[in-house]
Amino acid sequence: MARVKSNRFVPLNIAILTVSNSRGPEEDTAGDLLQQKVIDSGHHVLNRQLHKANIYKVRAEVATWIASDDIDVVLISGGTGLTPDDITPSAIDVLFDVSVSGFGELFRHLSCSQIGTSSLQSRALAGLSNRTLVVAMPGSPNACATAWDEILCQQLDSRCGPCNFVAELKSHRVEQCHSREMN
Question: In this structure, are strands 13-19 and 125-129 parallel, antiparallel, or unpaired?
């Protein structure tokens, strides 16, 4: 059985960014879904933005959030496909101190049962920057729900074990993961 990292829930401060050339705030259903899931999970949404697919504006926004002492997690929906407008991976991967390669791999694996081999066209990715988790996922509400429900909800819960991201974040209010230790 998985070892629980903390007996108490640690609410995280999260920023949400939607990258889209076709949606405005009223049509940002993926951003709305992420915001609701964050709140329903007991975390806080400190900032939410929508940007057009401009590599430098997206990078600047994410860099500002990474530099903030108040943001633990940045969730980005959109811009992870293969078209010329899909700039999110190029905008953010240069900001990572360390990539979380397993996120994209796991996301594509989970997506395969829903959309088949089309999951290969997702360049979902994650990394840690200045002890901030940055996660980019496709812009469809279904993809955001998969990422949140199947991966992020557990990994952003300090009670989930044997390991979760909370111990690696700025908030660092729980012990480090020691997943190879046996109880």
Answer: unpaired
CB 59 within 8 A of CB 173: no
Q: Name the one residue in this structure whose structure tokens are 């991967």.
A: 93
pLDDT tens figures, 136-166: 999 999 999 999 999 999 999 999 988 899 9
Tell me how far apart the 2 most distant CA atoms of the chain are, in Å. 51
Tens digit of each residue's pLDDT (9 = 90 or more) over 40-80: 999 999 999 999 999 999 999 999 999 999 999 999 999 88
C-alpha to C-alpha distance for 33 and 118, rounded to whole angstroms: 22
Classified as helix, coil or strand, 39 is helix
Nearest to 77 by CA among 100, 39, 51, 59: 51
E strands, the chain, in order? 13-19, 44-51, 73-77, 98-99, 125-129, 132-137
Q: Which two tokens stand for residue 81?
A: 């496909």
pLDDT per position as a tens digit, 82-116: 788 999 999 999 999 999 999 999 988 887 687 66
Complete edge-to-edge strand list for the sheet that includes strand 132-137: 44-51, 13-19, 73-77, 132-137, 125-129, 98-99
